[in-house]
TrEMBL record:
The chain crosses the membrane at residues 12-31, 76-94, 100-130, 174-192, 212-232, 252-271, 386-408, 429-452, 472-497. It comes from Oncorhynchus mykiss (Rainbow trout). It holds the Pfam family MBOAT. It is found in: Endoplasmic reticulum membrane. This is Hedgehog acyltransferase like, b.
Length: 499
């Protein structure tokens, strides 16, 4: 979009220096609050004894992180190591049957972990959606898939299906919903690809191979069926030079990220502090904003590590999985905001691009975004916070698209062509400040509570964060006002033309 040019190195160094100094300043405030409130009553359940040689307590508010990398670390490593070993043996002896080995090992691992009743439940969903895919009607596959997915989001279907899981271990609910949710999305991908197959149908065995691939089964990411089918059945298993070194390096980076997060949890209680509103109200604006940023970075690191470890294993299996999420610091537009690129690819292929076409008309774009975020809400679980997040993201995505098309018209296009590339980029960056701010608030709403997000909003816009607060406030107000008028006028003109 428009003119793109790299800024001078010294200018980029200056911006990075300002950003990192601001983060260090905010981190110092959070460190002081964490140190002085480690024994606070509200932190008793979440701030627990940590590594004794640090002499500090540890923030354990995120039970998923604690379960994955503490309690169930050995079990996860054992299961993935077994998969890698058997996959390597099969690739050496019978590479043409390696996808069948993935199915056998994955089914056995799910059976041992969750029990035969849970495995039967998963198989029943696979058989149901496979049977519907034989009709080769896209709308029927979508209807069946979304209806099945909704049974894991509403009562009494949730309790009834959860009763099929044996055992009461701590990660039971996470594995249950993760396995079931990703299974439905994979089955829908299979069904939609089967609808596109012109001659014959894919066999149910291909669906089971696709669904029970263990590294993707519980936690994703989702690779669409067409990509998995082509890569898992590829006969040529040769690697490019240096591929193993790159895979090993990625594994070491993920290990380093896990250790770094564990260390920082002993000094910055970024997960426990947002749960105490009384404490938050006594914190400085810098500390609140820094706390929100640290939470966003942590959620990005959490997703990057989880998907990164899984992707490392899948690359050893000669697959090319979806990339980890983009760093939160590099995000400034809604169109690139996705913490799960697998789900994003799935939605873009089967919903957004399919309904939106070339994204040239207001009506098609509105329908495409509404349906896309409607499925996203169902996937995340309908609730107040998710609805608000989806509304602002849907609005922001449309605002970006139509504003981009608007500024490409005359006389704006000629004015931009007359500028230098660097000046064009600076002006675009200035107008993107409000978008970046609204994007940060939207993400904070998704990963934090509504009360904390409202406090963050007031800290950014209505308090003492120097001149930037006034600048952000004015730009945000003007951009929202302009986008509302633009969107309304375009929608009105489209309705007139269609009538």
């Amino acid at each position: 979009m428009g003119i793109k040019a790299a800024l001078p190195r010294y200018e980029l160094y200056f911006y990075n220096t300002v950003v990192y100094l601001g983060l260090l300043w905010a981190a110092s405030w959070i460190f002081d609050v964490s140190s002085s409130n480690a024994n606070r009553k509200t932190f008793k359940s979440s701030v627990t004894p940590g590594w004794y040689y640090f002499g500090r307590r540890m923030d354990t508010a995120d039970f998923e992180w604690v379960m994955w990398f503490s309690t169930f670390r050995d079990h996860i490593l054992f299961a993935l190591s077994g998969h890698v070993i058997f996959a390597k043996i099969c690739s050496m002896l019978a590479p043409q049957h390696r996808s069948l080995m993935y199915l056998c090992y994955g089914t056995l691992a799910v059976l041992v972990t969750m029990g035969w009743t849970y495995t039967t439940l998963i198989l029943s969903h696979c058989v149901l959606l496979y049977s519907i895919s034989l009709v080769k009607l896209r709308w029927l596959c979508f209807l069946a898939g979304l209806t099945t997915l909704s049974t894991f989001k509403m009562e009494p279907f949730i309790s009834w299906q959860a009763g099929f899981v044996a055992g009461d271990f701590e990660l039971r609910s996470v594995l249950f919903y993760g396995g079931c949710g990703f299974t439905i999305m994979r089955c829908m991908s299979f069904a939609l690809e089967n609808c596109e197959k012109k001659e014959g149908n894919y066999s149910i065995l291909e669906l089971l191979k696709y669904n029970f691939y263990l590294p993707f089964f519980y936690f994703g990411p989702i690779m669409t069926f067409d990509k998995f089918y082509a890569q898992a059945n590829k006969a040529d298993l040769t690697r490019q030079e240096g591929a193993i070194w790159n895979i090993s390096l990625q594994g070491l980076i993920h290990l380093g990220a896990i250790l770094t997060v564990d260390i920082l949890f002993h000094f910055l209680y970024i997960l426990s502090i947002p749960t105490d509103m009384k404490l938050l109200k006594h914190m400085s604006d810098w500390a609140v904003v820094g706390l929100a940023y640290c939470n966003l970075v942590y959620d990005w690191v959490k997703a990057a590590v989880m998907f990164g470890v899984i992707n490392t294993v899948s690359r050893l299996d000669h697959l090319d999985p979806p990339q980890p999420p983009k760093c939160i610091t590099m995000l400034y537009v809604f169109s690139e905001t996705h913490f799960d690129r697998g789900i994003n690819d799935w939605l873009c292929k089967y919903v957004y691009n399919y309904l939106g076409g070339k994204h040239d008309t207001v009506w098609d774009e509105t329908i495409a975004t509404l349906c896309t975020f409607g499925i996203t809400v169902l996937w995340l679980g309908p609730c107040q916070v998710v609805f608000i997040w989806a509304f602002f993201n849907c609005f922001g995505l449309n605002f970006e698209l139509w504003t981009a098309k608007f500024v490409c018209m005359e006389p704006f296009a000629s004015l931009e062509m007359a500028m230098s590339p660097a000046m064009s980029r600076m002006i675009r960056a200035l107008f993107n400040i409000s978008l970046s701010l609204s994007l940060s608030l939207s993400l904070s709403l998704l990963f934090s509570s509504l009360l904390f997000s409202s406090l963050l909003f007031s800290s950014l816009l209505f308090s003492s964060l120097l001149f930037s607060s006034l600048l952000f406030s004015s730009l945000l107000f003007s951009s929202l006002l302009f986008s509302s008028l633009l969107f309304s006028s375009l929608l009105f003109s489209s309705l007139l033309l269609s009538s």
